[in-house]
TrEMBL record, chain A:
Pfam families found in the cross-reference section: BPD_transp_1 (PF00528)
A GO cellular component annotation in the UniProt record: plasma membrane
Identification of the protein by name: Molybdenum transport system permease
NCBIfam families per record: modB_ABC
Gene3D superfamilies in alphabetical order: MetI-like (1.10.3720.10)
The gene coding this protein: modB
UniProtKB/TrEMBL annotation, chain B:
Pfam families from the UniProt entry: ABC_tran
Location of the ABC transporter domain: 4-236
Disordered: region residues: 220-241
Top-level division of the source organism's lineage: Bacteria
MF terms in GO: ATP binding; ATP hydrolysis activity
Gene3D superfamilies in UniProt: P-loop containing nucleotide triphosphate hydrolases
Classification via PROSITE patterns: ABC_TRANSPORTER_1, ABC_TRANSPORTER_2
Protein name: ATP-binding cassette domain-containing protein
Annotated organism of origin: Komagataeibacter melaceti
Annotated keywords: ATP-binding, Nucleotide-binding
Length: 228, 241
């Protein structure tokens, strides 16, 4: 058994880096969006909710295609890239982050939104009648009560970013050390008949997915324990 | 009525098919009941006083402070109120002690300490302090909720049918505590109920509501009859403002 080859290690590190950055931004974005979607209920908010949920059903390559167009020199992504002197967001790490972020958004918004709904408005009202400022209510009541949902969002967001293939291939290409994440590397190794590396990555993904599922089910158990 | 002390409130508005238009006042101490059948708008009025609901047109004035008028609306968390909801609504992620102390504020540390021990003693909460809230009985939960509202040291206590979610034995268990509380309160209390016995037992003056309107308010004679009780001294006194 040989140790991991340097290019596999590189892909692992890049993948974890991408997933960590994406998940952090994801939660920062999903919390206020879920909050805003949860109260008060308006019909047009369900339209916004549906737009956010689109990646659940759209083929990732379709999303990737639109991202590629938007990230190009003549799209909004190109304009953003100009801020640091680049021509395009496509085939770059920031581009991957934005793509993964929007792709994983529904997986994070849904559990947090559900947690907010399950909690209801009452704890917020109680906190207000006890003199708690909105900020104090948020961090000492809302976050702890919605924690199972938030944790689920973190796990799902991280896992989906690690496993994403269609989008990263479309907008990231396959540049070692920059955009070549594990799922793309696996495809590459199979193309080049490097079965040993492909096996290592595939088996690693199976173990990772198993851990993810275990984590999720233990979170669900905990949140059910909370309700009783 | 325009002395500027006590509570003066007028609200007009509606939610769905229900409309309300009320105007009433409450003196600086004693327990004022808002009484009426279920669905007559009592809870909505109480929520308006607390600022949890915003009436389309509203005026709310308490002890010289304007909480709501045509251009002002003080948010709930900046109003010095205590609110006891129908269901106890304890924070499930906190212990009984943490729930009690969530709103504790004002005064020196020593004052807070003594307010804490007085409230604990009055509501018999000592044995519950370190427990979680999920496995308490309904009556115990409501006692904790009452204690939590009191420990905020409010200037006005609002109670929204605090007994209605409890069965008869639990009601009997809490009633004596509420009685002590209402007898010794040095702050005004607005108490909502649809139960005449509860009203007779706990409150000093009754405002009757029906379908969003005041149908009976205390007459001048009632007001004469109402004499503020001297607040009792001793360990039972607990809501010094």
């Amino acid at each position: 058994m040989t140790v991991l080859s340097p290019d596999v290690t590189e892909a692992v590190v890049l993948t974890l880096e991408l997933a960590a950055v994406t998940t952090t931004l994801l939660i920062a974005l999903a919390l206020p969006i879920s909050w805003w979607l949860a109260w008060p209920r308006r019909w047009w908010k369900s339209v916004i909710g549906a737009i956010i949920s689109l990646p659940l059903v759209l083929p990732p390559s379709v999303l990737g295609f639109y991202f590629l167009v938007a990230f190009g020199p003549s799209g909004p992504g190109g304009w953003i890239a100009h801020l640091w002197g680049a021509r395009t967001l496509a085939f770059t790490f920031p581009g991957l982050v934005i793509g993964s972020l929007l792709y994983a958004l529904p997986f994070a918004v849904q559990p947090i939104h559900n947690a907010f709904h399950a909690m209801g408005r009452r704890p917020l009202e109680v906190a207000a009648t006890l003199g708690a400022s909105p900020w104090r209510t948020f961090h000492s009541v809302v976050i702890p009560l919605a924690w199972p949902g938030i944790a689920t969002a973190i796990v799902l967001g991280f896992a989906h970013t690690v496993g994403e293939f269609g989008i990263v291939l479309m907008i990231g290409g396959d540049i070692p050390g920059h955009t070549r994440v594990l799922s793309v590397a696996l495809y590459d190794y199979v193309e080049n008949a490097r079965w040993h590396e492909a096996n290592i990555i595939a088996a690693g993904m199976v173990v990772f997915s198993f851990i993810t599922i275990m984590l999720l089910s233990s979170l669900q158990l905990r949140s059910r324990g909370h309700d009783s | 009525m325009n002395s500027g002390r006590g509570l003066q409130a007028a609200f007009r508005g509606g939610t769905g098919g229900f409309c309300y238009d009320v105007e009433f006042s409450a003196p600086t101490h004693g327990v004022t009941a808002l009484f009426g059948p279920s669905g007559c708008g009592k809870s909505t009025i109480l929520r308006c006083i607390a600022g949890l609901e915003r009436a389309r047109e509203g005026y709310c004035h308490f002890n010289g402070q304007i909480w709501q008028d045509s251009h002002r609306f003080v948010p709930t968390w900046e109003r010095p109120i205590g609110f006891v909801f129908q269901d106890p609504s304890l924070f499930t992620h906190m212990s009984v002690r943490q729930n009690l102390l969530f709103g504790a504020s004002g005064g020196t540390r020593a004052q807070q300490q003594s307010a804490f021990s007085e409230t604990i003693a009055m509501l018999d909460l000592e044995p519950l302090l370190s427990r979680g809230v999920t496995h308490l009985s309904g009556g115990e939960k409501q006692r904790v909720a009452i204690g939590r509202a009191l420990l905020r040291r409010p200037a006005l206590l609002l109670m929204d049918e605090p007994l209605s979610a409890l069965d008869q034995p639990r009601k009997q268990e809490i009633l004596p505590y509420l009685r002590t509380l209402c007898r010794n309160a040095s702050i005004p209390v607005v108490y909502i109920s649809h139960d005449p016995d509860e009203i007779a037992c706990l409150t000093d003056r009754v405002i009757t509501l029906d379908s969003g309107h005041v149908t009976h308010r205390p007459t001048w004679d009632d007001r004469q009859a109402f004499t503020p009780r001297p607040s009792a001294a001793g360990p039972d006194v607990m809501m010094g403002t």
